[in-house]
Design brief:
With 99 residues, the chain is mainly α. The chain has 4 helices and 2 strands; from the N terminus they run ααββαα. It binds heme C.
Length: 99
């Protein structure tokens, strides 16, 4: 939960920092991705860059790119299959945590 709260701060900073439409759309996608991660992935995965013993492991340690993250997202045991857009959003969120 702490990791998710920290990301909220990052997204808020991104939103406040630049006013461009593109940036806003990107931020909205990250927020959507974060929400999906919290409800569909966080039961089995963390995104901290350190191993915490989550069933599926920490996703930053995999160093997968967004495309592969999105493919995995669609085959995971989520409550409902993710749409392509939802998978892309959650992949963007995970990738955004890489730096
Ligand atoms: C019910 C548990 C569960 C849920 C929910 C779940 N996963 Fe997984 N996931 C796993 C397990 C178990 C593995 C296999 C881990 C391994 O091989 O070390 C895995 C593997 C992965 C991998 C590949 C990791 C690697 O080491 O190559 C990715 C990426 C991934 N999951 C992303 C997601 C995303 C994104 C979501 C949410 C949309 C999600 N998972 C939801 C259990 C889950």
């Amino acid at each position: 939960m702490r990791a998710v709260a920290a990301t909220g701060t990052v997204v808020a900073v991104l939103l406040a920092g630049c006013g461009g439409t593109k940036v806003t759309q990107r931020s909205e996608r990250l927020v959507r991705g974060q929400t999906i991660f919290a409800s569909e992935c966080s039961g089995c995965h963390t995104v901290s860059g350190r191993e915490h013993g989550a069933v599926g492991g920490d996703l930053l340690l995999t160093h997968l790119d967004r495309k592969d993250l999105a493919s995995f997202a669609r085959v995971m045991p989520t409550t409902r299959p993710l749409s392509a857009a939802a998978a892309a959003a959650v992949a963007s969120y995970i990738a955004s945590r890489e730096r």
